[in-house]
UniProtKB/TrEMBL annotation:
Function: Part of the ABC transporter complex HmuTUV involved in hemin import. Responsible for energy coupling to the transport system.
All residue ranges annotated as the ABC transporter domain in the record: 2-228
One Gene Ontology cellular component annotation held by this UniProt entry: ribosome
GO MF annotation, one: ATP binding
Name of the featured protein: ABC transporter
Keyword Lipid metabolism in record: no
Length: 246
């Protein structure tokens, strides 16, 4: 569970978060959408307490050790500097649980590797993997934390279409298991099909918050993203195709 109340933040004299009030409850997979520069990354980082903001974040208010057990975070940057085997990188997610039995840690790492389809790569040096494979390793590291809340910044960036679907389906499954997910996503179709709710940010404000079908309207796409788009309601869920800039 995450509750943000009137979060405000300015950077270099410019307002970046302008009174964000938002909560993500158990069972919710919330897609944070909005144009470049809308404040999505800043919102996630402020919610985690990684950058100071005015207002209240239930997560940032926790002592750091508790925060690490309350929430996993997949940051936007995907660079991996350490030349370690894949499973050792995934095991870093267990640092949040210093008192856990080694068998528990090993089981959590094995579950995360299996869920990301990384079993065959577990002994490979992580620096010898492709960018998309590394992105899956970092997602597995966050998953191994087994925290009730998952915050992810563009988790599908750099992934092929199958891996994008897998990543979003994984978040939907975490929510279905009773966890809470807040993920910034640029692919509005993926977000609409896999998220239980969409929150739309524009210039640091929440301008829409609700079920994907209610939120993704032609009017909103024009006003927030400045585009004309085709939105199809299909048996597979909402399908979204940007057509032109307005
Ligand atoms: N360190 C900083 N100093 C000054 N301004 C910053 C800094 N970091 C971000 N900003 C500004 O804050 C605003 C929000 O940035 P943020 O990265 O949160 O946007 P975003 O919605 O995640 O964008 P994107 O979709 O491009 O990743 C932007 O206008 C950006 O230029």
């Amino acid at each position: 569970m995450l509750t943000l109340t009137d979060l405000r933040l300015a950077r270099a004299g410019r307002t970046v978060l302008d009174g964000i009030t938002l909560s993500v409850g158990p069972g919710e997979c919330v897609g944070l959408i909005g144009p470049n520069g809308a404040g999505k990354t800043t919102l996630l980082r402020a919610a985690l307490g990684l950058i100071p903001a005015q207002g209240h974040s239930s997560l940032a208010a926790l002592p750091p050790a508790e925060r690490a057990r309350a929430a996993a975070y997949l940051p936007q940057g995907r660079e991996i500097a350490w030349d370690m085997p894949v499973e050792a990188v995934v095991a870093l997610g267990r640092a949040a649980w210093p008192g856990a039995a080694r068998s528990e840690d090993r089981a959590a790492v094995a579950r995360a590797l299996a869920r990301l389809g990384l079993d065959a790569l577990r002994h490979r040096p992580v620096t010898a993997l492709s960018g998309g494979e590394q992105a899956r390793v970092l997602l597995a590291r966050a998953l191994a934390q087994e925290a009730p809340l998952m915050l992810a910044d563009e988790p599908t960036a750099g992934l092929d279409p199958a891996a994008q679907i897998d990543a979003m389906a994984l978040f939907a499954a975490l929510a279905a298991e009773g966890r809470s997910v807040l993920a910034s996503v640029h692919d509005l179709g993926l977000a609409a099909r896999h998220c239980t709710r969409l929150v739309v940010l524009k210039a640091g404000r929440v301008v829409a918050d609700g079920a994907p079908r209610a939120v993704l309207t032609e009017k909103l796409l024009a006003e927030v993203f400045g585009i004309r788009a085709w939105i199809g309601d299909t048996a597979e869920g909402l399908v979204f195709q940007p057509l032109s800039r307005l």
